[in-house]
Each structure stands twice: as structure tokens, then as C-alpha cells.
Amino acid sequence: MPLTRRRSLAVTAALAAVCCAALTRPTPAAADAATDRAALARWWAPVNFQDVDSTGETALGGKSDYITSYDYDGDLNGRNNWENTSQFPLAAHVYYSVVQTPTFSYLLYMYFHPRDWSDGVLDNYQEDLTEHENDAEGVLVVVADDGSAHGQLKAAITVAHSNFYSWVPSGSDFSSGQESVDGTLKLQGDPHDDGHGRPFTTQQPNTHAAWAEGYLSQERSQYASGDGIVYYPGGTAEVPSGANDRDVQYTLTDIFAADGMWANRTLTTLFATTDNFAGDDSSDPYGARCGAGGVLGPANGACDTDAANPPWAWDDADDLPGRGYLATNPAELVWDYFDWSGKPSAPDLAYTWDQYNGITS
């Protein structure tokens, strides 16, 4: 082949490689938008008080109430998370996603526990005597995009099993819609940053139902003078020093990260179905099996299998919006839950970013 022909082919190949790289490499604008979304999620990431119960056969001295990641034990197997809770440190992580329309950002945060457990006593609101492997509760934070760097916090909706509860901060123009507002969303500063107000949530021990802090008298009392863990967003995934640690940093993990939760939703070791984390009722070689804590004494109680749902399958059993809408179609759910000044006659579903539905431009 003539030299000039070889050079021409080489140049053509090089140009093709450059073009392909340009097609696959994020544009500066797209990279900036991704950075902005992550920064927004970081700015409004909640402070979370986790009440801790150190009693009961499956409590592990309170460790069963620590938040962590679903792969805290180094694998993507949901069916060994119950037994491995006693064997590995539970470093604090919180999962998040961002969905946006031209007027609102919907920031979802998920708290994961390897165990939903019971101390065998019904002494807390919405407590039950069943147990199951893996547990996922959380909060949706609603921010109006007003042109400022971080927008305006308008409302929040917390997840307590198959019930959602709605909250508004002082000064918000959001009020009750088809669902009644349940109370005030308190704000709490983070000692690890500039101290601006963040949504302040609380979780019950055992079942880990999530609420606005201060709503339940028992959790209010525990925060004031009992035991529990205060989790703050930070740059390090810390492990609590014990059942009463009031400064533990968590790191944020994007649900849509490469090889993350959404990408692995069809991985059958982690998910029994795309809407259910995999969890079984097998024996625990290191201690009490799932179900043992629900009944006082040597007998075993109920251990539900595959019982925990990821955010895209969270559902309030008696509201109008569909299953998973808190994550996948939050504009419609928020439009249903709240009224506000200038509320449109129909929900604004012109999403500019909703990875659950493949909208990424």
C-alpha cells in the first residue's frame, strides 16, 4: 500500500477515535449539571436521629439500629445481611437520587438497615412483632428552584413502612392538599459545614419508621435525654462508637452510580424482584435468627422474606398516587399531597431529569 494511502487511513482512524470519544465523553455543560445536582443533594441532605434499642434477643446491643449500605459486608448478597450484622462494622451511608422539573427539585434519601427487628414488646408507635432481613425507609425533600444556588426548602415526606407523612418547615407556603400536613419540619445545622438548616428527621428503633424530628413524644424524649445516634452528612462514612453517639458522619451514595442500586436491580442475589430486596429466614450461625426477637423466650416468631422495598417501589397503602411515585414521579405525588401559592391546575410532569424513567437531558 502506498505510504500516502497508509497515512490517510491512519488519519481517518484517528479522527474516528476522536469523534467516538467526543460522543461518549460528557460535555462540560452535562458535567456541570451533574455536579450541581450532587451539590444540591449534599446541601439539603438531612440530619437524622436514629433512636436505638439495646434490648432484645436480636438487638446486638443496639447495633441492629445502625444505618449502613446494603453491601456493608463486601458482597452484593442480600440474603446474608441479617447474620453478617454482628460480624462487620456498620459504616454510615445514605442513598439519594435527584429528580427535577423546571420549577422543583425532588431530593430523595434512603436509610438502609440490615435488620428490621423486634424486642418482643409493643411499646412504640406502629411497632410490630415481625422481623425481616434488610430495611429501607427514607424521606423526600422538596425544593423550589428560585434561581439561587440551593433553592428554597418547601416540604418533606417521610416513609414509615406503607405510610407516608408530610411536613412543612416554618415559613413555607405549602399547606395540606389531598393529604393533611402532619406537622412542622424542623431544621438542624451540621457542625461539619457552615451550619445552615437541614431537614431534621428521626427514626424509631426496631422498625426504623421515619418521621420529622419532634413529632413522636418517645423519640423526642430519647433525643433529649435517652440514647441514640445523630447522623450528619459529611466526607467520611463513620461507625458509631456505641448506642449513644451524637456525632456520626455519613456519606451520600447516588442510587444511579455505576454498578449501584439501580444498575443492580436485576441482580438476583441482591433483589428477589426488581421491587424487593432479597432477604430470607435462614439460620444465623453467629446468633439469633430472624424471627427470634419477635417472641419473648426461646420460641421463634415471624420472619418475613423479601420484605424490604427500594425507593422506586415505596407505596402509601391509602393515598392516590401510584406505587413508587415518591421516587419515580414525585411531581404528581407532591401536587396531590400539598397546596401552595401559584399551584398549577395539573401537575407539571415536564421532567428535565428523571433517571428512573430514562429522562437525562
**Whole-number count of domains:** 1
The helix/strand series, from N terminus to C terminus, equals HHEHEEEEEEEEEEHEEEEEHHE
Distance between the termini: 46 Å
The computed structural class is: alpha/beta
Low-confidence stretches: 1-24
Helix content: 10-25%
Q: How much strand?
A: 25-35%
Number of distinct beta strands: 17
Shape: globular
- Overall mean confidence score, pLDDT: 92
Question: What's the gyration radius in Å?
Answer: 22 Å
How many DSSP helices?
6
Report the sheet with the most strands, covering strand number, pairing sense and barrel closure: 13 strands, mixed
Would you kindly provide a written description of the structure presented here, covering whatever features stand out?
The chain is of the alpha/beta class and 361 residues long. The protein has one domain (46-357). Helices cover 17% and strands 25% of the residues. The chain contains 6 helices and 17 strands. The protein has helices spanning 3-24, 28-43, 81-84, 217-225, 325-328, 330-337, and strands at residues 47-51, 93-100, 104-116, 131-144, 152-160, 163-168, 175-176, 183-184, 187-188, 198-203, 210-212, 228-233, 248-254, 271-273, 276-277, 303-304, 338-339. The strands form 3 sheets. Strands 1, 2, 3, 4, 5, 6, 8, 9, 10, 11, 12, 13 and 16 form a 13-stranded mixed sheet that branches. It has a two-stranded antiparallel ribbon with strand order 7-17. The chain starts with a helix and ends in a 22-residue tail after the last strand.
